[in-house]
## 1
Amino acid sequence: MWLQTLDPGAATPPHRHDCDEVVVVLAGRGELHIAGGVQPFGPDQTIVLPAEVDHQIVNSGDEPLRTLAAFAATPVRVVLPDGTPFALPWSS
């Protein structure tokens, strides 16, 4: 589990991982880009991201987006859409 803060206009890189992820939105608003679509979300919502599906979280609001996230397994393999490995902040 980890807390993440994205400033207004910031985004995670598009990526996928080899297990499910659950993200709880603590504050702020954003967009989930997944499966060719865009899903808006706000505080007190939970996002479930399935394994092996490319996705990106974007702060579309005007305040910091704070989330609490957890992977369903560890260690987790995270890759960019082209398959390039992506190091999580605590693994570098």
## 2
Amino acid sequence: MVRLGLLAMLVGIVALFASIDPAAGAGIVTVPLLLAGLGIGALASQLGSVTVSAVPDEDSPEVGGLQNTATNLGASIGTALAGSILIAVLTTSFLTGVQQNPAVPDSVKAQANVELAGGVPFISDADLQAALDQADVSEETATAALEANEQARLDGLRAALVVLAVIALFSARRIPTTQPGSAPLPSAEPSSAS
């Protein structure tokens, strides 16, 4: 069940990576996110059982507490790591898109480098359009910035999904195939013909 949960989570992440585009709506991301969520649920329920069954009954409350702490810590670190990668790639992609676009004036490019070097916020096209209107930039520059923002959001999301998929694949090798303390599965031994 654990490997099935991991597989469902991985398939959901890969499907989300493959299907996400600027026109992606709720219908396109629902099934991949549902698969990933089902996989995480299957993993969480079974990993607790595997962890607690590996120790004597009198130690199971402490081990269960440690397992919950490790789960919460891992979720926090994973979220922070994926978010950091998302923002770093978003920033790099947006600034590269602005710098390489001939429609963006050099003064705007220089200002973007200075003001956004610390990180580009994850901003919707509508909010960016409102900010560009308020800054009174030309239509051509606004269009270039919107295109760069759209591509940067996709690049950031894809990079974060790749990191999550790699972590899932790396973690899969460490999952036990049998419940600790259970009898090993009988191995098939070749019969000797005499």
